[in-house]
Amino acid sequence: MDDIISRTPISNDNTSSITVELDDRISFNEKSTGSTSISKTSINVVHEPKTIDYKARQTLIRKLDLRLLPILSIIYFLSYLDRSNIANAKIGGIEHDIHLTSVQYQWSLSIFFFGYVLFEVPSNIILRRWRPSRWICLIMLIWGTIAVCMAAISNFTGLLICRFLLGVFEAGLFPGIIYFMSLWYPRKMQAIRLGFFWSFSALAGAFGGLIAYGIGQIKSSKIAHWQLIFIIEGFPTILMAICCWFFLPDSHEQARFLTVEQRQLGIELLAEDSGASHNHSFSWSQVKSIYTDWKTYAYAIIYITGTTALQGVTLFLPSIIVGLGKWTPVQSQLMTLPPYAIAFIVTLLLSRSSDHFIERSFHLIFTNLISISGFLILMFVDRNRSSILYFGIILLTSGVYANVSLKIAWFNNNFASLTRRAVASATIVSIGTIGGAVAGQIYQDKQKPQYFLGNTIALSCIIVQTILVLLLRFIFIYENRRRERFTIEQSQRQIQRYGGSDLVGDRHPDFRYTL
Question: Rounded to the nearest 10 degrees, how much is the dihedral formed by the CA atoms of 277, 416, 422, 363?
Answer without folding.
Answer: -160
